[in-house]
Design brief:
It is a single chain. The chain has 84 residues and is an all-alpha fold. The chain has one domain. 46% of the residues lie in helices and 0% in strands. The longest helix has 19 residues. The protein starts with 14 loop residues before the first helix and ends in a 5-residue tail after the last helix.
């Protein structure tokens, strides 16, 4: 016997609106997913997030780690005044 299962995991109904509100407040919205690139592209399309979908094949490498660390530091510095 051969069987085929399909799974659908669409974005929640309020996700698109939440993303647009965040962008309006100046938040840079990025989507990080473990899904296949085509699924990520379709999800980005559904959420009006553009078509710049990048694939790292699960291998971030040192350069990506440096970029992420710099962004984390930048964000931490930009919100530091909110805690004092």
């Amino acid at each position: 016997m051969l069987g085929l299962l399909t799974f659908l995991d669409p974005p929640r109904p309020d996700t698109k609106d939440t993303i647009h509100k965040a962008i309006a407040y100046g938040v840079g919205v990025k989507m990080i997913t473990g899904d296949h690139r085509l699924i990520a592209q379709e999800t980005a399309r559904q959420l009006d997030m553009g078509d710049d979908v990048r694939n790292v094949d699960g291998k971030m490498g040192r350069d990506s780690e440096i970029v992420i660390e710099r962004e984390r530091e930048r964000v931490s510095e930009s919100i530091e005044h909110k805690f004092f």
